[in-house]
Amino acid sequence: MHELSISQSIAKTVLEKASEQEAKNILSVEIEIGELTFLNPEQVEFWLEEILKKTPAKDAKIQIRKIHSQLKCRDCQWQGKINTKDDPLYHTYFFTSHCPQCGSSSLKIRKGKECLVRKIRISR
Amino acid sequence: MKSIKAKEGEIFDIELEEDLLKRNEELAEKNKHLLDKNKVKAIDIMGSVGSGKTSLIKNLIVRLKKKRCLGVIAGDLTTTIDAERIKEEKVEVVQVNTGKECHLDANLIARALKEFDLRNLDILFIENVGNLICPAEFPLGSHKRIVVVSLTEGPWMVTKHPYIFREADLVVINKIDLARAMKVSVESITKDVHRIRPELKTICTNCLTGEGIEEIIKFLSL
Question: Which residue in A45, B12, B142, B161 has a CA-CA distance of 20 to 30 Å to B150?
Answer without folding.
Answer: B142
